[in-house]
Amino acid sequence: MHSSRLSVIGSHLKHRESPVVSPSPAAMSANRTSPITTHILDTSLGRPAADVPVKLFRKGERIDQEWSQISSGQTNSDGRCNGLLNSLEAGVYKLTFETATYFNKNGIRQYFYPYVDIVFEIHDPNQHYHVPLLLNPFGYSTYRGS
User: Fold this and answer.
1) Is 62 helix (H, G, I), strand (E, B) or coil?
2) pTM of the model
3) Residues of 48-66 as b/e, b for ≥16 C-beta within 10 angstroms?
4) First to last CA, the chain
5) Whole-angstrom Cα distance, residue 83 to residue 95?
6) What φ, ψ does residue 102 adopt, rounded to 5°?
7) Per DSSP, what are the bridge partners of residue 122?
8) C-alpha span between 58 and 100 (Å, rounded)
9) Are 94 and 117 in contact (CB under 8 A)?
10) Structure confidence by residue, pLDDT tens digits, 61-109
């Protein structure tokens, strides 16, 4: 059982194109990949985390400026959310994952993180930025993917 969970997680760590699910009006067309993509793997169950609401924010240019929501979406059956943006500018961004929605939908009543915020900085808007989330009810991890 342990090795099958690892193989599922390992197969999802490899980037694959998948259809966009519930993109915001600002989201791009399904035949192009957003410059910021994400996916969520539930490491406690060894499978993708589907139907997780995701919001994307951008910080104002000055440090005292507030966050502005610029897009939203939802993970698909493969745990991916690919259609968040059409274009990208340098700056500080935040992905918010509504994890309580996912846990409650899956009958997980005890969890520690009702949402997860991942803040990151874009220096080169010509690159692609993939921000995976490895999630379980009592912890999470992230990294810059490819």
Assistant:
1) coil
2) 0.77
3) bbbbbbbbbbbbeeeeeee
4) 28
5) 13
6) -65, -50
7) 91
8) 23
9) yes
10) 776 789 999 999 999 999 999 889 999 999 999 999 999 999 999 999 9
